[in-house]
Amino acid sequence: VQLQAFGGGLVQPGGSLRLSCAASGSIFSINVMGWFRQAPGKQREWVATITRGGSTNYADSVKGRFTISKDNAKNTVYVEMSSLQPEDTAIYYCNMVTSSGRPYWGQGTQVTVSS
What we know:
By secondary structure, the chain is mainly β. Helix content is about 0%, strand content about 55%. The protein has strands spanning about 1-5, 10, 15-25, 30-40, 45-50, 55-60, 65-70, 75-80, 90-100, 105, 110-115. Strands 2, 4, 5, 6, 9, 10 and 11 form a seven-stranded mixed β-sheet that branches. The protein starts with a strand and ends with a strand.
């Protein structure tokens, strides 16, 4: 099973980006999908999660600006990011956890917010 993240890039402050992450291979009973990020010199931090039932949670730093969503049929999770700021610059990683607690991680996609 591999998670492939797409959609990163360079964006100006105030801009928007949409990241997507699709799971390939056989992955059963995904319980939670989410996004994390790691800025240079900092630890990886949680950004947002969405449960199988569709409940969402966000880090305070992104609440109101980021929206997480999913497509169960495609085993794909998205995050729509708006009002991006330089402090949002990081490598963004997707994460999926099965009902048995097994985690899967994507390879990361770089988001750079700069003028």
